[in-house]
Amino acid sequence: MSESTTSVRVRGIYATALTRAFRQAGLDVVAASPPIRERFTDADLAAAEPDVDVWMTEDRQGVGVAARDDSHAAAVRDVLAGLGRDAFVWDDPVPRGAVFDAVVDRTVGGGAVLALDADGHEAYLPFGNADEHVEVGDRLRVGIREPAAPWSDDRAVAADDVTVSGALASLDRGVDALVKGAAADREELARTTELLDPDVPDNWGVYWQYEATDADMDALGDALDALADRAHRVEDELGEADGDDDDPGLVASPESTLWAWFGRESRTALDEHRRDVTATMPGHHRTKAGSETASGAVDFAESLGASVDEFPFEAVTDQFGPTAGDSVVLRHGKPDGSLITLGRGEVTDRNVEKGRLSVEREMTGGGTYDALGVDREAGDTATTRFTEGNWWYPTVYRSEDGERKGTYLNVCTPVEVFPDAVRYVDLHVDVIKHANGTVDVVDEDELQDCVDEGLVSEPLAEQALSVAHRVQSAVEN
């Protein structure tokens, strides 16, 4: 492995595809799982400490990325963003391992919500992660244990200690013994630590991970050296922050954290990468992203040599949902990484030949329908037709007595129909058909703002505008 090359560890349902994509881009993959080592028998997948850690998000929609510096983060970002037009990558302002001087804003359930800075960022501190009693108004120095994806409903999880995390080992601040804990061969790794004699800051302990048992002495030494360098930087930053004012804010950030959200086009590209390594059915990652049960079914089908020519929409929805009568949530993503839930509706019809669902929602009263300019009243219904893979979908709004109030044709990344939700990222520009038949394209300026801010790529914006004007022409005619 070259010293100048970025090394990456990958875990989750995208591991095989991303291993190939990273290696194709000239990055090294290290600390690989046994299945990955079996599939890449001709590759040198060393048991070494990575520069970048990549893991699947809990909802299977994308990956989280923690990198030891911005240059390594940029190398991985380029690969992820290049998978497809509907791959989005965002920086996390609350990265893994970051240290904040936080203030307890309120307590909820089994923990406290912390105000991290003046920008409104928050974290959740479980009471079990605090050594002392926590009350509203307390000022705490905390480390971020688990960052949260921007599209999730979760907050980052914090603890009142400081940790520098790695794949082979971690360093924990405030530990008396050099070796706090260890993996399977605890005593042997403890002796190894003494032999390596790492330059770990005083009052920091080494915690060996299970992957360390497969690494040789050179790899273990390199891992400790890299972690020790980061720990010293953290110590320096903590020292500089002592005596600051009482306002919450970031104190130290030993890692950069990114989040990548994959759309349907990107998942298809990941299928192609995986297919170059092992048997992969169409819609492999699209199906696996739906649920753990669906993921296991894909593995079973591929192990039997099952072969299909295209994504089996009927079979997947028959087995895992949704079908007529089921309830689904409309997950309306935004280019900045946020996600809005448009409500839950009932599947009233399913056309398996066209990969299409009709979903009906009953609306609450108050306000107006965006861009249509008509009142939203109690008893109104919204009937939405989603077609798997389409770059747009229509919603027809009707009054309680069935009178059409207008149609909203939303332009978005390719629609994905998962067992309990329909997901996409809204691209702002839309087509509106008023009740009198007038058709308008709206919000082109909002799309351009996203391009200017770097949230939407030029190719994706061009696709969105092309779709909008094609839809406008079709609706008008």
Please characterize this protein's 3D structure.
The chain has 477 residues and is an alpha+beta fold. The chain folds into 3 domains: 7-94 and 258-275, no CATH class; 99-251, Nucleic acid-binding proteins (OB fold (Dihydrolipoamide Acetyltransferase, E2P), Beta Barrel); 321-476, FomD-like (FomD barrel-like fold, Beta Barrel). The chain contains 11 helices and 25 strands. Helix 1 packs across helix 6 (264-275). The chain is globular. The N and C termini lie far apart (60 Å). The relative contact order is 0.10.
Q: How is this fold's topology laid out?
A:
Elements (H helix, E strand, L loop, with lengths): L6 E4 L4 H10 L3 E2 L4 H6 L12 E5 L5 E6 L2 H12 L5 E5 L7 E10 L2 E5 L6 E5 L12 E8 L9 E4 L3 E2 L4 E5 L5 E3 L4 H11 L7 E5 L8 H25 L7 E4 L3 E7 L1 H12 L8 H5 L3 H12 L9 H8 L6 E7 L5 E13 L4 E7 L18 E7 L4 E7 L5 E9 L3 E2 L3 E14 L4 E4 L1 H9 L5 H19 L1
Parallel strand pairs: 1-2, 1-3, 8-10, 13-14, 17-24
Antiparallel strand pairs: 3-4, 4-16, 5-16, 6-7, 6-9, 6-15, 7-8, 9-10, 11-12, 12-14, 17-18, 18-19, 19-20, 20-21, 21-22, 22-24, 23-24, 24-25
Helix pairs in contact: 1-6
